[in-house]
Amino acid sequence: MHSGADRGRRNVADRSKTPPSGSATRSGRPHRHKPGNTKALDAKNGNTGGGGQPPRRASASLSTPAAEGRPARDAAVDAVTNVLKDRHSFDDALARSADRVGLMGRDRAFARAMAAAALRHRGSLQSVIGSFLDKPLPKDTGRLDAILLCAAVQLLVLKTPPHAAISIAVDQTRADRKARRFDKLTNAVLRRVSERGAGILAQLDRLALDLPPWMLERWTRCYGRDAARDIANASLTEAALDITPKDACAAGQWTERLAGHLLPTGTIRMAAGGRIEDLPGFAEGAWWVQDAAAALPVKLLGDVRGLDVADVCAAPGGKTAQLAASGARVVAVDQSEQRLARLRENLARLDLAAETMLADAALWQPGCQFDVVLVDAPCTATGTMRRHPDIMHLKRPEDVAQLVKIQRQILDNAARALKPGGRLVYCTCSLEPEEGPDQFAAFLADHPGFARVAIDPAAIGGETSWLTPQGELRTLPHFLNQFDEGLKGIDGFFAAVARKNA
Description:
2 domains, 9-stranded mixed beta sheet, 4-stranded antiparallel beta sheet
């Protein structure tokens, strides 16, 4: 239920589809979700099943007969094409592609791993492929670019058997009306990639090739050259599986049952691999998937039992679940009915209750005030690329300024919804200062009735290095690097707290 990344991928144009301020769910009234036992999607953690299927972790062992078939590769090629050419989000593109060919289980996980790695390493893989081409390919070649890319990622990253990867890529080329004349070229190039590509790949500056230059330049200005490269390296690796237990007191018990690692912040961490819904505790709603960083903003509030809390931009509901499980009375606000439906399904599996409201957070007029308003604002989500590699292809430098305006409108509206003495938590999963510390500083300057509340290190597991001199939270993707490969890292997150004067 990692809401930050999912909201961060929203395009600014989404606001044009926003319903009128304060519009309720389909019944015409605010929807009060009651606990139930409905089987539902879990949180988005970059590994959802999509299309109504339960979420799946990327399989750690993908070289199975089922995974070597054509449908999984077709789904991966379609997903990559839809992201790069049609600018669809990765999760949506993969869900549609996988559903179209009826992928389940390990085949679906294989398609996801293939497409995600192709997007993550597109620049360096294209450089390897290009070294075996006499001249650039024509522009109108159908899905040929994605076919070559997905085959190359199998050969050089996923290490699948060369014969299967190459022969199916040739079949895919022949099946594409605009690409079929390149079937012999596909065969020849991929054979060379299989034989010599690894050596070429090892000599490349993959950070410079895989990341958009504007991102690396921005991070270098903001964090320094060394930190920027550490951030970039971490952003190009697959994220671990992080789990938030419904009962925080049972975190140790669930860590043992899941054979995971208990982080100082209370998150349970596991290596990605296998089907999430097959893990102990999923069916009974004992936990949900949520990056360790995404779980921190709620922890900054301490005891919320009995408090009235508005979770703004709430779907798919990880923070809503945290608040409800901690005894708060929660109103979850989001502008997407589809995303709110997923939030309600998640709450049903977890047997938790919250009220949901379909509304634009910048215009919502609740008619009451809250003890706490949590704003997990739409953003560029550059801190979540480990889970969402489409971000490096879909985001543009100009998106930052556009999103800053939207964030400011949401914050201004949230301030009006707070009771005197109430607390505002502002957070984003962006690495860009304009969307984090600069935005919060501007809010405080424009609202003299609010005062910053310094974060207590104990609220974040004693990780004092994650706090800025102003007492705000800033995690970076290369943090938590003391673990083995596959367990390192954390999403890049910013969070800060302010209190409204009584």
